Amino acid sequence: MSTHRPSVLFVCVHNAGRSQMAAGWLRHLAGNAVEVRSAGSLPGDRVNPAAVEAMAEVGIDISGQHPKVLTTDAVEASDVVITMGCGDACPVFPGKRYLDWALEDPAGKGVAAVRPIRDEIGSRIRGLLADLALDLGPRSKA
User: Fold this and answer.
1) Residue 12 is a catalytic residue
2) Cα–Cα distance between 25 and 9 in angstroms, integer?
């Protein structure tokens, strides 16, 4: 009997802030129990430094991540696709679970303004894990 490891794709326009923070939270909280992807419809040049700093404050390192372009293959390979303001740029495939998280864009904001966005994303990731009904055992409460 094979066990399926769920796959989650986070999509925002630049793949530099919201989707990178969400991917960081999910990797941190789920470990290897979930396959994590992120991408952008118009990827930026680098991950937002304020997002990197805000995540580091809660012990999550996203400094090594790079914005990636959204591909049809990434959507097809994912069980859950979570969009964060990419609008119609995200392809839709039957049989996928789609969620749209309305989150403020951290672009151009300082770390103080990014913290509440980071915390909201962390809360939503915890809810997503509960929805996926994963038995992750005791893990960090960062």
Assistant:
1) yes
2) 13
Single pTM value for the model: 0.89
The whole-number pLDDT of residue 87 equals: 62
The single residue of 86, 117, 121, 129 carrying the catalytic annotation is: 86
Catalytic residue among 26, 90, 111, 114: 90
CATH superfamily to which 7-132 belongs: Response regulator (3.40.50.2300)
Query: For residue 118, with 0-12 CB atoms within 10 Å meaning exposed, 13-18 middle and 19 or more buried, which class applies?
Result: buried
- Write down the mean pLDDT value for the chain: 88
Q: Which helix (H) or strand (E) holds 57?
A: helix 49-57
Ordered by start, the domain boundaries in the chain are 7-132
* Chain segment 98-136, per-residue pLDDT in tens: 899 999 999 999 999 999 999 999 999 999 999 887 544
Strands 35-40, 80-83: parallel, antiparallel or unpaired by DSSP?
unpaired
50 is catalytic: no
